[in-house]
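User: Second chain of the day. Same drill as before.
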Amino acid sequence: MSTGSELHKIAKALDDASGECVLATLVEVTGSSYRRPGARMLITESGATTGAVSAGCLESELKEQAFAWTRNGSCAISFKVGSPEDELLGFGSGCNGTLRVLFERISARAPSEINRISRALKSRETSVLATVFDAKGSRAPSAGCRLAVNGMTDFHDSFCEAIEADALRTRTSGETRLFRYSCGDSEFSVLWEIVRPPVALTVFGSGENVGALLNGARTLGWETTLCDKRTELFNRQQGLASDRMLESVPGELPAELATDDCSAAVVMTHQFQDDLQIVASLLKSSIPYVGVLGGRKRNARLVDELKSQHPNLKFDKLFAPVGLDLGAETAEEISIAVLAEILAFMNKRDPSHLKSGTESLHAALKMEERRIVEREHISVAAS
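Assistant: Same format as last time:
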């Protein structure tokens, strides 16, 4: 699945390109694969690439052949990676999977759904994205991407009702899905995705630990905001870097803060009374994740005082002490522990060792058949 930050990078590369580009989208996987359906790679006429659809097994070939493959229009091609022959020759990936990739030409100057989604991401809107592939028949839409909530006019009337229902179903479940639709002699496959904005991390405080956390979050492509009662000039002089710096009084949240489902806040002022006021205001907000740096005893005291002063706060979203137990000591190590916990929370995962599990690292997406009956046939049957 493409993350919001990946799609944003592809959209930026598309804006910067001067001619036509090829967008490669991983639409279906059978067996094992490093990336999941929804991974994307943009290839420009100059050979520059943004993104990836595999661990590196296919990118070189895709870069060389993408424009030739799309000379006559969009197409989907299957690639087998990690075959026994490759293993014998010493360059097999070991994945042993089949990847189906959709290739489509995109003009750098023409509006595209990637650009529209990028604009939605800047507004921190969650989008439902439909990628159509393997289409045939007079009623089937052409291969390509479209926002399901806005682009229904490209679908034949016979499919509209089912498409609209599946768009709503995808938005409600939040899960990536694969469907094959058929009606008469027409059929096509659709990869349904939820594209969420990148995590918006707000950090309260200043100092070495704050700088390491902000740097790590920015490396992940997250949006970062620093809130502190000291001025932006002071924090810049301390070497802190953030997308935004807001001067704020403890207990008063700036109106500019992101408070959607993909937002998180970490409090690390190292001043107990300030932390009390800041955490209380955060627990009253709709930010779903609130973390507090500090030891167990300090945080136990913090929680006790908060409960006595504000018993109705949403304590279930409070992570104090913040971070996973990684044995972290340095500022950089602590930042990894904190970012890993936030990532697991956003992905609804219970952190554990991957080697302890028995299931596939990526849940398999099975193609579900959606046979559409002609509307006139439905009316006849109803009568």
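The chain has eleven helices and 16 strands.

User: Great, on to the next one.
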